[in-house]
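Milestone M4 deliverable, item 7.
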Amino acid sequence: MTLVCAPLVGTTVEEMQSDMVKAKSLGADLVEIRLDFLRHFQPSTDLPKLLSDRPLPALITFRPKWEGGQYEGDDTARFEALRLAIELGSEYVDIELKVADKFVSRIPDKRLDNFKLIVSSHNYENTPSCEELSELVARIQGVGADIVKVATTALDISDVTRMFQVMAHCQVPMIGLVISERGLMSRLLSPKFGGYLTFGTLYEGRESAPGQPTITELLDIYNIKQIREDTKVFGLVAKPVKQSKSPILHNKCFQDIGFNGVYLPLLTDDLASYLDAYLSPDFVGFSCSLPHKVTAVGCCDEVDPIARSIGAVNTLIRRPSDGKLIGYNTDYIGAISAIEDGIKGSSAKGDAVSPLAGRLIVVVGAGGAGKAVAYGAKEKGARVVVANRTYERAVALANSVGGQALKLSELETFCPEKGMILANATSLGMQPNVDGTPIPKEALRFYDLVFDAVYAPKVTRLLREARECGVPIVSGVEMFVRQAMGQFQLFTNMEAPESLMREIAMKYT
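Output delivered:
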């Protein structure tokens, strides 16, 4: 089972001792004591304090500046400190491949039975080819490593596949990590590919390397202790992706029904490149968000007729029988049903005619979400107006639904009739740019209802200002939950736990 290791980057011995206790309480299996972060480090006095009565097994690392660490002294003193750590009973010591030969010659041949030497290599520029990585692993094994550690850097999310291939075929214990947000998958799927350990920080801001998740995220959100070789992989392909609450929502629901799957945030620059790289049948399904929803249509082997009519896909499923990618769209159901319920409130839910029928709806945005709202509104009998920053895109979408196009600036005075509905389908107002809004506050008085597809924050500036104008609002949380319910059913072939989804959405958005 892959271990969860908490890197300790405190600057004093006392801080590290306190952090060890914290790491154990959070569920870590061991700690990495980063000696290079300590100020005024005195090996003969500080190491006994750190290693005596420690609550967890310890990995001692004294990383030099030339390998991405903090230490700027000579290797002789560094080697002596690491040798002392072994004598004091440290379970693991990490030494860099570049100097491993020299270090190994200084430590006793007969070591404690529970001691393991980790020999590491860090590449902060890129991720080499599979052949180069395999050669590197062989070199590390050749210097006497008990555990191989290779860390590279992801320039693209597809780089991680090479690390996974090498890990899966490695004959000795291996730690394989790909640094940066694009490499996060390597940390979360370490158990699936046989990784010896993965790093989890005490909390955000205490990383020893870029892209490290927290212990709580590893254990409570990604349920890393339950990930196995046969665990199915799902995820959100988007850019940006960090702000999304989809991983929390889907993973909590997977756990609730006992489903052997994990849902990841997948920072993706090029959707086609990503899909070409991850062809394994274990990579079962993906949510698509900005900016990939329209591009996704052309990446599918087959597209559901509704998604094709919309011209956008927000869900990709790899069909088990033949591995083909099938595209669907659950956005339009989520958005339109939320708007309909907002119009009619708690009454008349059984009406055969949609409350959108005959109404004028102004859709802001001509991307994937805008296409879904515009299509859904047209299908319900609404008259559609599309406003977009790029006017040509507004025209194209408006023409496809028999509607009218506007420049975004025209919304300030656009009021052809009373009773209009406004639907923001752009990312304006989304975290971290929470001050964004697609329309001036003064113009909101023209509308009877304002809907915002953005769900983080729960109440955007647009919704707050609409409420201040006395206009009823519908939060993007409603669309988020409803479209996720459709995705969950496509992912698992099981009914989504709606009440749990709503509870999670309200807690985390």
